[in-house]
Design brief:
Structural class: alpha/beta
Strand content: 5-15%
Number of domains: 3
CATH class of the largest domain: Mainly Alpha
Strand order of the largest sheet: 2-3-4-1-5
Order of helices and strands: EHEHEHEHEHHHHHHHHHH
Helix content: 55-70%
Oligomer: single chain
Number of helices: 14
Shape: elongated
Length: 302
């Protein structure tokens, strides 16, 4: 008997782990939607083999969404047949439940989470290794450029490598022409334009971003940039701020020269502009895109 529980929000790595598990099993895996599973099906799934195979691999997804079956699963775990390889996939199982606690005792629990800003180095190393596996030759600088343009989502990074696999030689120019800029990079460019006082570029970029972006998500990212800028202006040390905020030093270093130029008074005005826009947005006082534009134009005037 082998029981594996895969949890976390990194669907890319979970998919890879499932493929690895299934590749190690001789036979066809049975895939079950746990959210629709009937309690009466548990005995057949967990206790017996079939006429066609001595061993079975049963993959059940989202069982914790089925409260009644999830509750009873804990009682069935000791009775899982030695001839059954059970794989449970649940992004967010309730760790307070008795079933989860019982699973922790008998299952191999693998938690796979999305990368955060702290994992930029991990993403760059992964890119280089994954590129090699795909026959794409990239160096560390190319990996850094790809991460800056794409972000830290592994699916997007994988698709970026898939595009680059079609070219003969990967250069910075090729990366910039083939790989689209991520929303976070667009946000930095927009914020940077405002900080440099380029009002026309701010208006033009907002007009373009309205076609593809959600205004509330964009405002949240812009507010994060403003907060990071203020933190650098107050602290003075980019390394300290990066560590305290859990952000990669590169992201903070891009703001450092602007923070020094603005100082504490300037950064306070920027925070004030975003705080005012946030209040107006929560109270629906105006169109969110208009509020974003007004806030950035205030920043451009500082």
């Amino acid at each position: 008997m082998m029981i594996t529980l895969l949890t976390g929000d990194n669907s890319f790595e979970i998919g890879r782990e499932i493929a690895r598990i299934e590749a190690g099993f001789e036979g066809e895996s049975e895939h079950i939607d746990g959210s629709e599973l009937d309690l009466r099906q548990l005995p057949d799934l967990l206790m017996g083999t079939t006429l066609f195979a001595d061993k079975r691999q049963v993959v059940i997804k989202n069982l914790s969404e089925n409260k009644s079956v999830w509750t009873d699963l804990g009682q069935w775990l000791p009775r899982v047949s030695d001839d059954i390889d059970l794989v449970l996939i649940d992004a967010k199982p309730d760790k307070r439940t008795l079933t989860y606690k019982e699973l922790k005792k008998v299952a191999k629990v693998i938690e796979l989470h999305k990368w955060s800003d702290r994992d930029t180095d991990v993403a760059e190393k992964w890119l280089i290794n994954e590129a090699g596996r795909m026959g794409v030759q990239i160096d560390r600088k190319a990996a850094q450029l790809i991460v800056r343009r794409v972000g830290l989502d592994q699916w997007q990074l994988f698709h970026a490598l898939d595009k680059l696999s079609l070219v003969d030689i990967v250069t910075p120019e090729v990366i910039e022409s083939v790989i689209d800029i991520s929303p976070s990079e667009n946000v930095f460019n927009l914020f940077d334009a405002a900080l440099r006082g380029d009002r026309r570029l701010v208006v033009d970029m907002i007009s373009s971003l309205q076609l593809t972006e959600d205004p509330y998500r964009l405002f949240a990212l812009l507010s994060g940039q403003a907060f990071q800028l203020a933190a650098v202006a107050v602290a003075g040390s980019t390394d300290t701020v990066a560590s305290d905020l859990g952000v990669h030093p590169y992201a903070i270093s891009k703001l450092s020269h602007l923070a020094k130029k603005l100082g504490r008074p300037g950064s306070r005005k920027i925070i004030g502009a975003f705080a005012s826009a946030d209040d107006d947005m929560k109270l629906s006082r105006a169109d969110p895109w208009l509020l974003i534009e007004q806030a950035l134009l205030k920043v451009a005037s500082i």
